[in-house]
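Per your request, structure below.
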């Protein structure tokens, strides 16, 4: 069982930066694919960024490319989302998610859809003012 706890959200003005953290329980964190999703009021949950097991391969949605960076530190059971040049439309609850994939996976595999994840944190609120 994996428990995920997000932190680092808050209120920031447009153009500012925030660094979100997600810490996980367990001893096998390095075997999990990790991702960040967000959900704004009245909207469906959407993909933000994802990373493979060792952090060497990442991908972000077009809305976050060149502004968001996902990284992980497997020695600390942590995954991070560094956000810069924030916009009001980035306002949402941000969730981290984890999955230990079954079957044959390469070291570069990513999980890019919410249905692929088995574990979710409680979320952290990010509010960007104009």
């Amino acid at each position: 069982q994996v428990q995920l706890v997000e932190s680092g959200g808050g209120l920031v003005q447009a153009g500012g930066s925030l660094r979100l953290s997600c810490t996980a329980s367990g001893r096998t964190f390095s075997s999990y694919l990790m991702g960040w999703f967000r959900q704004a009021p009245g909207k469906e949950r959407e993909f933000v960024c994802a990373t493979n097991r060792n952090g060497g391969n990442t991908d972000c949605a077009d809305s976050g490319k060149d502004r968001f960076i996902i990284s992980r530190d497997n020695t600390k059971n942590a995954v991070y989302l560094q956000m810069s040049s924030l916009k009001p439309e980035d306002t949402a609850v941000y969730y981290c998610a984890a999955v230990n994939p079954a079957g044959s996976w390469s070291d570069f595999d990513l999980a890019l859809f919410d249905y692929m994840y088995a574990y979710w944190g409680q979320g952290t609120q990010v509010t960007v003012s104009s």
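The first strand starts at residue 4 and ends at 7.

Regards,
D.
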